[in-house]
Fold these 2 entries.
Entry 1:
Amino acid sequence: MTKLSWRDIFVEGVVLEGIPLAQQWPHTLTGRLRLIGASAFGDLFFERLGGGVETLDVLEGGVRKVASSTQEFASLMNNPTWQAESLLTDGVALLFERGVHRNDEQFFAFAPHPILAGKILWDRVMPMDAIVWHSICAQLLDRPV
């Protein structure tokens, strides 16, 4: 198994500053939020005003609560089981073994998107600029409530 670094599995929010990712999701992401970072596949993790941490799922759509506080979120981020489930670390390792890598301002993108393919196709992954991947995902998944 490929040894992964923090940078391999998570993109810090500071790297994504200035890229209007949340604006791609006007129906799904509402209210004030502070971007914490993103998975290598583009799922956004953000803090709400009340201190809770939520995630935007770019593969299935929707937002869900991850932690009650940033401290709880930090603890989860250091849990290998949580990393495997929430950051798809096994998928990142598989891609690295296949020679697929991404730059800091890119995410691993599926073509076609899993919502169109009906499943995740690991052999159809490519690095894509963060804004382009979020635009595609939002066009497919961002719907009025």
Entry 2:
Amino acid sequence: MVMPGDHVTFTVELIHGIAMEQGTKFSIREGGRTVGAGTVAEILH
């Protein structure tokens, strides 16, 4: 579990492809609430 203020690194595999590049900011939403946010650090192929 990640708590507010924690910093984590994780790998995500998207269901649908979208345009993304290193440095792109993103948010993770669940049920209309933002539950996380970050920046793309690396693109894996």
